[in-house]
Amino acid sequence: MTLQKKVIWITGASSGIGEALAYEFNKKGAHLILSARRIEELERVKENCSDSEESVKILPLDLAETHGMNDKVLEALAYFGHVDMLINNGGISQRSYAVDTQMSTVRRVMEVNFFGTVALTKALLPTFIEQKSGHVVVISSVMGKFGTKFRSTYAASKHALHGYFDSLRQEVYDHNIDVTLVCPGYIKTDVTINALTGSGEKYNKMSKGHKNAMPPDEFAKKLIPKLAARKEEIYLGGAELMGVYLKRFVPKLFNKILKRVSVT
């Protein structure tokens, strides 16, 4: 699949994985729609792209404001006339014990990670159905396949995405629409620094696993060919990916291992 002039809409494009994907798609000649809350950071990412005035558009978006998604889709379609791929990358993480996590924090994480992603996808879906093509990509996590201490709400939001988009995939086969769930392991981003504590404040710490993890630009380079191959589920990361298979085949052993492992 050539990416030349394909229209790629990326949420969470102001940093981390989203920013790295923007640069990599831009190198391959794609047209980009970049969304996030921080307009100044989106402008920075745009300026770092080549041919940015013609090929890169900025569309500010807050995933927590699900009521406005239909209008956002209309704005996106006005830029290039259509969208070929939606990359649902925006989201937030959580670092706190379940007993200490306020319900307001639980709702915040679910609102952004699950409801925001679903609302935007649903708003764009009729366009994909009408044009008889489209690719929905969801940046999930290995936490969508198993849970650990300190991440109960985050893991729940990612598990919910898997249930929803696995089901959606079955519904859109006949419309020539692909659905891909991407499960990164540790990627060297600020995801833990920006994570919410139980009270909803910023965690402000880089986790041990992320300090020496795969850089986001390497992740983007490895991911795009797999997206072009329209794979249904993609795993990228380090040794932590083994947890997916241990959970599936030897869950009792896996739980024993997790009890002893530091996950902060």
Question: What does this 3D model show about the protein?
Answer:
The chain is of the alpha/beta class. The protein has a single domain (7-260), classed as NAD(P)-binding Rossmann-like Domain (Rossmann fold). The chain is 46% helix and 13% strand. A seven-stranded parallel sheet has the order 3-2-1-4-5-6-7, sandwiched between helices. Helix 4 packs across helix 5 (103-131), helix 5 (103-131) runs parallel beside helix 6 (152-172) and helix 9 packs across helix 10. The radius of gyration is 18 Å and the shape is globular. It starts with 6 loop residues before the first strand and ends with a helix. The model has no long low-confidence stretch (mean pLDDT 96).
Helix/strand layout:
Blueprint: E1 7-11, H1 16-27, E2 31-35, H2 39-47, H3 52-55, E3 56-58, H4 69-80, E4 85-88, H5 103-131, E5 134-139, H6 152-172, E6 177-184, H7 208-211, H8 216-228, E7 233-236, H9 242-249, H10 251-260
Parallel strand pairs: 1-2, 1-4, 2-3, 4-5, 5-6, 6-7
Helix pairs in contact: 1-8, 4-5, 5-6, 9-10
What is the H level of CATH, i.e. the homologous superfamily?
Answer: NAD(P)-binding Rossmann-like Domain
Main sheet attributes: strand count, strand direction, barrel closure: 7 strands, parallel
Regarding CATH, which class? Answer: Alpha Beta
Examine the coordinates and then state which fold CATH places here, giving the name of the CATH topology.
Rossmann fold
Q: Mean pLDDT, as a whole number?
A: 96
Please state roughly what percent of the residues sit in beta strands, choosing from under 5%, 5-15%, 15-25%, 25-35%, 35-45% or over 45%. Answer: 5-15%
